[in-house]
Amino acid sequence: AARVCHFKLVLLGDTAVGKSCLVVRFVRDEFFEFQEPTIGAAFLTQSVATGAATVKFEIWDTAGQERYRSLAPMYYRGAAAAIVVYDITNKDSFNGAKSWVKELQRRGDPNAVIALAGNKADLQSKRKIDYQEAQQYAEENGIMHIETSAKNDTNVKSLFHEIGTYGLSI
Ligand code: GDP
Ligand code: MG
């Protein structure tokens, strides 16, 4: 039988950037224009097959609100991977993502895989964050970067697949 690796993964980022939609797309292949706001955090699991093993993600989808921020360490502590999400149409959310990356690099597991996800890539005409700007930031900080659309199902599976593959290699 193939090897199964368990990966605790946390999603962090400002409210309404699409964290829950990314998870719901990945786990159930659904999308809702009126996704219910997350209270506290939600837990879901999904597996992906990579060449080396099956990766079973144990996903903590956190709420982005400031009043829950102090709870975040409970979710990122011991996590093998973190997806920090911003909305490509919202500059504040990119600044918020940077502060999450900083916090993870200071206080998270030093071996954790960090992926920066620029979501809502379907809204090209409203774009405020250039791909290149985010890519350069990611390179400077040694983290992965990918643009996604939970709505159009763009790069959602790739995001998790790349995290799994990279996580198994380190
Ligand atoms: P969260 O607070 O980060 O969990 O954000 P949600 O997943 O609840 O999504 C917030 C809003 O953004 C909802 O109205 C979603 O339908 C919308 N949304 C999420 N992902 C996308 C996307 O990829 N494209 C577009 N156009 N809207 C999205
Ligand atoms: Mg949510």
UniProtKB/TrEMBL annotation:
- Species in which this protein is naturally found: Pelagomonas calceolata
Protein name in the entry:
Ras-related protein Rab-5C
Q: Which keywords appear in this protein's UniProt record, sorted alphabetically?
A: Nucleotide-binding
UniProt KW Nucleotide-binding keyword? yes
Q: Name one GO molecular function term.
A: GTP binding
Please give the superkingdom of this protein's source: Eukaryota
Q: Where are the transmembrane segments?
A: none
